[in-house]
């Protein structure tokens, strides 16, 4: 990259974006003083990290975005990294939100649920927990002995008789029965103690009450308390008390392995180590560690994340800062304080206990990295497909229709080797657009996908053969986007007259087609990389078929709805806009229906009566 006129770079805080010759963002950075930070890239190459030197060889232009504070620059940087996923940024691959317990204490009858989002709604949150399975098992166990309601607020308000859980002794049924609010809140407090890691304190309280009930010859109550004590001992995961404090904190450790950098994070709540998580970035050395740590904090904690009151990092500003920004942790603390709504401190260990926790996080992260699979299927695909980097975001598409009607293109997204279900998309096409021509539909889909913008996939997998692949590639070429991502297709093996794989052509396994290559790419049967592609394809196929069947069922149900007095095409459309199924429509109360635009009480009552056939 040729030197630029530094006088054109602002001196205020902000974000800078390096772009390659195709205008694709290859690196995003933030700075307290943009001009000083950009100027640092034009120092002698031997003073820069290998990653920075590689980035500058690809960069052709730079764009800056001004912010009023460094904190705003930090938040904007994290947002742009997630949007563009630049090649030379240190990316947090696994940035999903982990499971938390949510206790809605604003409601008169609090309810315990699982969630992945932290909202400023007055609820109390416990966690996070990396294993959703363990969290669900714990929730089930809690519900068995602490009889809190399970139904949603909406169902609770409309219920007229106790549910099944009440009849099997797992719910007080406050929705319908006249129960003691004081007794209910006592159960809520016990659940809070349990989830706060104060299981010993809870067991002491329950034991005392059990003996008191037994002495009063209230044997049924004593038996219930005994069962609660057993449930606490069985269902609470083994947790270690690591610090004598009531504060919540996350402790981050970072260490170097032979193959890259490993990062570990310990989740400590009320002095109890409740869970841990590890991350690994191949090919990085300790010289990249300061940038990695800061990038991790910015990307890991988001709007819906649980943010503790303290984040302990291995180094302070003396190591992480430089002449362009001597106190980077200040901006991180300000950003996290804004996210949490309360003061958050980000700092290096302040005593021996915290130093030992950082060492523990580091040692466990390095150990975890050593036991990971040496070569992942995605790394193998990178080599076989000639990709510059290991693919992270993979988009898989499949077309489904019945004789050209109700055409749907399902798009399933994988991040790494795991499906990202919140990224799934369905594209609907009219019967005129589809017409049973899969090639035409895929071309139209590619046009829509380009219009929707980033994040772009690293790998695009088409369910089909060479014809489907060419339909997509031709659109990319027409828009000058051939280098946008790697595109391949996967087709099932050809069958002979007997229904078996046609061995005469060597087509005994699924075939992988690449643009500009006449023969399929040979992947060994049962190879991890082929199994991963097949899993992606099968998941997308099921999703696409499901969306298509839902569209067919929706059209049939719409016809049924229009037979109800008061529901015409316009009203049916409004109902589908508010509810995802006819079952939901039927369960809606008159008051709920009146919230729909243009529906008064009389019409709502008529619709409610008409929907009774679906209850």
UniProtKB/TrEMBL annotation:
- Compartments, record wording: Cytoplasm
User: The GIY-YIG domain covers which part of the protein?
Assistant: 11-90
InterPro entries the UniProt entry points to: GIY-YIG_endonuc, GIY-YIG_endonuc_sf, GIY-YIG_UvrC_Cho, Hlx-hairpin-Hlx_DNA-bd_motif, RuvA_2-like, UVR_dom, UVR_dom_sf, UvrABC_protein_C
Q: Where in this chain does the record put each UVR domain?
A: 200-235
Q: Which GO terms describe its molecular function?
A: DNA binding; excinuclease ABC activity
Q: Which SMART domains match?
A: GIYc (SM00465), HhH1 (SM00278)
SUPFAM superfamilies registered for this protein in UniProt? C-terminal UvrC-binding domain of UvrB, GIY-YIG endonuclease, RuvA domain 2-like
Which superkingdom, per the lineage?
A: Bacteria
Pfam short name (any one): UvrC_RNaseH_dom
Q: Does the keyword Cell wall biogenesis/degradation apply?
A: no
* Keywords assigned by UniProt, alphabetized: Cytoplasm, DNA damage, DNA excision, DNA repair, Excision nuclease, SOS response
Query: What family name appears in the similarity comment?
Result: Belongs to the UvrC family.
Q: What does this protein do?
A: The UvrABC repair system catalyzes the recognition and processing of DNA lesions. UvrC both incises the 5' and 3' sides of the lesion. The N-terminal half is responsible for the 3' incision and the C-terminal half is responsible for the 5' incision.
Identify this protein by name: UvrABC system protein C
- Please spell out the taxonomic lineage of the organism that makes this protein: Bacteria, Pseudomonadati, Thermodesulfobacteriota, Desulfovibrionia, Desulfovibrionales
